[in-house]
Amino acid sequence: MRVSPEVAKIVAPGVARDLQLTVAQGKSPLTGSDLVTALFFFCRSPDAEIKGAALLTLRHLPASILVAMVGDAALHPQLLHFLAQVRLQDPQVMSPLLGNPGLTEATAVLVAGRCGAALMPLLLENAELRSRFPGIDAALVANPALPPALAERLTSTPAVATAAVSAAPGESREVKDEAADENEEDEEKLPEEEINLSKYQQALEMEVSAKIKMAITGDKEWRAIFLKDPNKLVHGAVLKNPRITDGEVLALAKNKTSSDEMIRIILLNREWTKNLTIKAALVLHPKTPAPQALRFMNFLDLKVLKKLAKSKGVSQVVVNAARRMAADKDKKR
Length: 333
Prior knowledge:
Layout: H1 5-11, H2 17-24, H3 32-42, H4 48-60, H5 63-70, H6 77-86, H7 91-98, H8 105-114, H9 120-124, H10 127-132, H11 135-142, H12 148-154, H13 158-167, H14 177-187, H15 199-205, H16 208-217, H17 220-227, H18 232-238, H19 246-254, H20 260-268, H21 270-273, H22 276-284, H23 290-296, H24 302-309, H25 316-332
Helix pairs in contact: 1-3, 2-4, 3-4, 5-7, 6-8, 8-11, 11-12, 11-13, 16-17, 16-18, 19-22, 22-23, 24-25
């Protein structure tokens, strides 16, 4: 599932918990679909407080925010399915949701099997939807909220009757208080099936050992995620990934916020330090030890040396050496 840059910044690994909790509570600059998407991710958070807050926010979010979103054909089916579960008893949201061209049979059948009486007309009067997803009728018949007269009418079709019996063998079609109570309890549950979460959200739920393993073996997207992880064992493991490119290493060498551990690992790799551009970036990096920076300076051109001579972020020893070398090269021109 692709998310906007704004959402990615909130749900990515390493983001402050207080900020994530604030968003989960609905108190954030995110609006509309971005807010709903972030809440979707937080509903799968291993942090019980964030998870509970996000679910509560989604349940009480004004229907007007969700109406346009659930009717959008481009909405990811998993998010559509999730919203169907969370707002199952809200006709204002469910009406456009059931009309979404991207609706899957799994979502339609879920709604038919668990919705309350208020939502039944939306399904019973939608012949096109029931024709498109034959499983809807069987799910309706198995739903204890369906009035007996309607259940009898639907089961007049042999295929529906057979499917309904299979779905709920021996179950009475009367609307019992117990069944209604169970249905209400179901509404309070988060979806139990696994959702193919974005890599950002998967990373949030990983143990450190799993993060390290994925950092070493994962693709570029995984590497980008774990390079931002605050744990040095995790972000250091990215540099052990055999698929990491010189371009990614160069970006790290240029990034002044790269950790000591990252710079140390880059310096130990002879293949990377053969690259003149990476060498120059390392010399300019404030966390490169002076002895190693001095060793690389012989390979720098005059332009880089002059830049280094004016730098305030590196050792004074390196700055002085750069000034001397720049002066010498100027004399030889």
